[in-house]
Amino acid sequence: MKPTIAPYPAARARRTRQSEGIRGLVRENVLTVNDMIWPVFVRDGEGIEEPVPSMPGVVRRSVDLIAKAAVEAQALGIPAICIFPYTDASLKTEDCAEAWNPDNLSNRAIRAIKAAAPDIAVMTDVALDPYNINGHDGYVENGEIVNDRTIEALVKMTLAQADAGADIIGPSDMMDGRIGAMRQALEGAGHHNVMILSYAAKYASAFYGPFRDAVGASGALTGDKKTYQMDPANGNEALRMIERDLTEGADMVMVKPGMPYLDICRRVKDGFGVPTYAYQVSGEYAMVQAAAQNGWIDGEKVMLESLMAFKRAGCDGVLTYFAPAVAKILQG
Ligand SMILES: NCc1[nH]cc(CCC(=O)O)c1CC(=O)O
């Protein structure tokens, strides 16, 4: 579509910017509470809310307080919550068996949320990093992150999460072939309605730093994730990954990180027309909060502007740590 514009003064762009009402009338995109998935961090214990220093405003909550937070999120109209466990170092092993323990932190949190707030969808994270002694998303053998054996573990993890009541499985591991294996296992186990939101275009990004603090994986990680996460220089590869995951049975796809990858969001939406999500990751959140705390930017305005950018780029929704703050503003 080629925009048509008359020469000045027949056209004065400022006519349609003259008041809030008129600006609203011509506005192309809206941000609503329906557009947000809220990532939360869960830890063990009871009655605990522990700040994450590198993510001001974000806390790790014990299971009881995660359930309480989910009730509040549900009341705010947030459609989905995504659980990330902070796993005690003593539970990290080479075989990552805690990952598919039906009573691990994440699965207990799923059950607690489903019991307390049945109308909010629960999304999970599928990757071995919280449980892996070396902080990687897959098994490490002789210094190599091995693909196929990791998939077997990821499938067990997926089934344990679905059994616990997860609505949306979120594979963030970037192994090849995992979506097909998970979909087949879910169908086989009768979990026909469990959705997969694939981290299909996930980049090997430095923007995940604060998250690794939040889940206690920073110290554990040896090396980097470049043999499985994508090279930030690549765009066409993202489209191939999206297409592959859709063919294997993903219901929804994600681009991650968010703001530095808005070009990818737009290409995915235009190319496939499927439910498209972006993850506004921990480093993006931390940058906004840090600058706001220093008085260098208006944190609330930047938060809203950054989320509107995802809508403009074609996203149907965003995983954002700002979800409750935004929901409160939108509720008025
Ligand atoms: N599989 C782990 C995982 N799941 C979500 C994030 C990052 C989220 C964020 O930075 O907010 C990561 C970190 C990583 O891949 O190292």
Helix content: 25-40%
Count of structural domains: 1
- CATH class wording: Alpha Beta
Termini separation: 36 Å
Largest sheet: 10 strands, mixed
Indicate the proportion of strand residues.
15-25%
Active site: 202 (schiff-base intermediate with substrate), 256 (schiff-base intermediate with substrate)
Enzyme class: lyase
Protein name: Delta-aminolevulinic acid dehydratase
Pathway: Porphyrin-containing compound metabolism; protoporphyrin-IX biosynthesis; coproporphyrinogen-III from 5-aminolevulinate: step 1/4
Describe this structure as you would to a colleague.
With 332 residues, the chain is of the alpha/beta class. It has one domain (31-331): TIM Barrel, CATH 3.20.20.70. It contains 11 helices and 12 strands. Strands 1, 2, 3, 4, 5, 8, 9, 10, 11 and 12 form a 10-stranded mixed beta sheet that branches. β6 and β7 form a beta hairpin. Bound molecules: ligand PBG. The ligand NCc1[nH]cc(CCC(=O)O)c1CC(=O)O binds at residues 125, 127, 129, 137, 172-173, 208, 211-212, 225, 281-282. The ligand NCc1[nH]cc(CCC(=O)O)c1CC(=O)O is lined by residues 125, 127, 129, 137, 172-173, 208, 211-212, 225, 281-282.
